[in-house]
Amino acid sequence: xxxxxxxxxxxxxxxxxxxxxxxxxxxxxxxxxxxxxxxxxxxxxxxxxxxxxxxxxxxxxxxxxxxxxxxxxxxxxxxxxxxxxxxxxxxxxxxxxxxxxxxxxxxxxxxxxxxxxxxxxxxxxxxxxxxxxxxxxxxxxxxxxxxxxxxxxxxxxxxxxxxxxxxxxxxxxxxxxxxxxxxxxxxxxxxxxxxxxxxxxxxxxxxxxxxxxxxxxxxxxxxxxxxxxxxxxxxxxxxxxxxxxxxxxxxxxxxxxxxxxxxxxxxxxxxxxxxxxxxxxxxx
Length: 284
Ligand code: GUN
What we know:
Elements: E1 3-4, H1 7-29, E2 34-40, H2 44-60, E3 63-69, H3 75-87, E4 93-96, H4 106-112, H5 124-131, H6 140-151, E5 160-164, H7 171-180, E6 184-188, H8 195-199, E7 204-207, E8 225-228, E9 232-233, E10 239-240, H9 245-251, E11 254-255, H10 262-282
Parallel strand pairs: 1-11, 2-3, 2-4, 5-6, 5-7, 7-8, 8-11
Antiparallel strand pairs: 9-10
Helix pairs in contact: 1-10, 2-10, 6-7, 6-10
């Protein structure tokens, strides 16, 4: 029997709790949490993500301000805006939606955002603190994965976690999060030989590679927990993950669906980080 990990329901529950927490904190501090979202250019997927982030903020009482800049915006102008937001006491969280246009250096942008306001957890200070196992703002998607496991009482301690994908946004931070929970971690990627034989050793298998249904029956150990971070759009418009969902439902003990799995948790963790940054700012 396989249990579906319902990210949508968990996200809704967490957002309801956050909404209450925010109202209590506003009474205490006299200030409302504020998130600045920067979007450079008109990439259609990024526009949808930014709109969803704005809506999510609204749903829990966080004030969001979107800065929609033209694709021709120079790096200097963008850095100036970040400097201004870093200084703005009404803004507790800042994120710049990625990717930025090619003429802008992503690292320069991410490093300019104050680590205290870096609600994406991408600043090298936050990355370093994560590696050291210290308190920090953590990248939202892998943090959402950990939150789902916790909600379903799945303890990574002592378990073999196999991660497929080594991206900066998901795979790499997830290595640290799993290690910090005392899992034994194996990371696989596009150059890994005999992927299936490694994946099927995983008690927890996380696919975050962006290849539609790469992970099939041969990759999944009987009774494993399977987390699918992939969101791929098929030619007919349907969303599919990095895992063959039918195989996961048959072989896994727990698995996340696409959609309604990891996806809704990512923005929820952004809200959580924004509230964390706001609380840190007021020492509450
Ligand atoms: N683009 C895709 N995922 C993300 C994310 O988590 N944060 C930002 N800032 N941009 C993204």
